[in-house]
Design a protein that fits this description.
Helices cover 77% and strands 0% of the residues. With 410 residues, the protein is mainly alpha-helical.
């Protein structure tokens, strides 16, 4: 799928250029497209190099969190919930532990730990699957929750906003949390309805109420601010929580007798490798998107979308961020490129850039996760997994746009 999308960017751009040249409207269009590709390649390297320090910081802190057992503790808190959402999984089965560890890692933003834990969870669930080529209910629910997982610390989005010079990189914290929570609940409810799960169990309701109270407290801390100060207040709450998390990681490591400095250095060394490893993906996607925009094809697409939404009487200021939303379900690197391109074109503190950042942080690469997780255990028939995952993405996107208007639209 990604191969076709990437190739499609270049082919559509080439066709758009040919049309303009043949009509005599823009004879210099090919030169503009080539120059845009060169600029995008340079930007890719600049972005990756600029991320080295920030990645070193957070990977070092996450290494301390892992060694301090914070993931294991969060997994322990989530275990009773998953025992009820996956009734076909016997109590004490290794799958429950792997699932909860994966969810805990996702919530803490530990992507490096989340993926291998997710693959392990899928393999453990496969041992209970009576039809190995068809996804079981537990596997479907796990995949939907994984693709729509609430991320308490959307560090990656903050890093990119900081790299582009955002005044308050964490101002999108609360909007991302609200929209990702909405998407997760939507995916859970639809899957539970299709699988006839007893979600009105006291334990499940207790978790739902707990999440609602947490969200209510965060929203309550922000909503009292004047409309023009909502973004600033969100940034304040987000930065407070971020620094609190840093202190929590360090104190937890110290209390466990861990050499926090050595652990930090061990994790931070991965930062350079991760940043450099991003360069090929950034070059590939940013160049493709730059060519697509320079050819005029993206502008034509956005104008068509704007006209469509305008005919419905809707404000169209969010339209420039829609490519990020569309791409996110297909490709993480593609969506990241779309978001960065929006930052570059409209400015990182523009409304369109805020919407793109929220959409990037509140939805997941459903097609990719489905292909990797189900492919790793040989599942060919996904049943309702894809539909539920895409529904969760859709709810997260709609909520994200609505929240962006609430927080950032004048």
């Amino acid at each position: 799928m990604l191969n076709r999308i990437w190739l499609g960017f270049f082919l559509v751009a080439f066709f758009a250029c040919l049309v303009q040249v043949s009509l005599g409207d823009n004879p210099g269009i090919f030169a503009a497209v080539v120059e845009a590709s060169f600029k995008a390649a340079r930007l890719s390297v600049e972005v990756a190099i600029g991320l080295v320090g920030l990645l070193c910081l957070w990977l070092g802190l996450f290494q301390i969190a892992e060694r301090a057992g914070l993931i294991a503790k969060l997994a322990w808190l989530l275990a009773p919930l998953f025992r009820r959402l996956m009734p076909e999984v016997p109590a004490g089965h290794p799958a429950i532990g792997a699932v909860t560890m994966n969810m805990a890692a996702n919530m803490l933003g530990l992507d490096n730990a989340a993926t291998p834990l997710g693959l392990k969870a899928m393999r453990e669930l496969q041992t209970l699957n009576p039809e190995p080529e068809t996804a079981s209910n537990a596997q479907i629910l796990f995949l939907v929750l994984n693709t729509a997982s609430v991320t308490l610390i959307p560090v990656t989005v903050f890093l990119y906003r900081a790299q582009f010079g955002a005044a308050n990189p964490a101002s999108v914290f609360l909007p991302i949390l609200i929209s990702s929570t909405a998407g997760t609940l939507a995916g859970l409810l639809l899957t539970a309805w299709l699988q006839k799960l007893r979600i009105w169990d006291r334990v499940v309701l207790a978790y739902v109420v707990g999440i609602a109270l947490f969200m209510g407290a965060l929203v309550g801390a922000v909503i009292t601010a004047p409309p023009e100060m909502l973004g600033v207040r969100s940034a304040m709450v987000g930065n407070l929580l971020l620094f609190s998390v840093i202190v929590l990681f360090l104190v937890a490591g110290w209390r466990r007798g861990i050499d926090v400095y050595d652990s930090f250095i061990t994790g931070a060394k991965q930062g350079f490798e991760v940043a450099i490893g991003l360069i090929p993906y950034l070059v590939a996607m940013l160049v493709a998107v730059a060519v697509f925009r320079a050819s005029g094809a993206m502008e034509a697409m956005l104008q068509a979308l704007g006209a469509l939404f305008g005919s419905l009487g809707l404000d169209t200021d969010f339209v420039p961020a829609l490519p990020t939303a569309v791409m996110k379900s297909l490709s993480g690197s593609g969506a990241r490129a779309m978001m960065l391109e929006t930052f570059q074109t409209y400015g990182v503190d523009s409304f369109a850039a805020h919407v793109a950042a929220i959409l990037q942080g509140s939805s997941e690469t459903t097609f990719y996760v489905l292909a990797v997780y189900f492919g790793s255990v040989g599942i060919r028939r996904e049943r309702h997994a894809l539909a539920c995952g895409l529904f969760a993405d859709f709810v997260a996107v709609v909520t994200g746009i609505a929240v962006a208007y609430w927080f950032f639209h004048a």
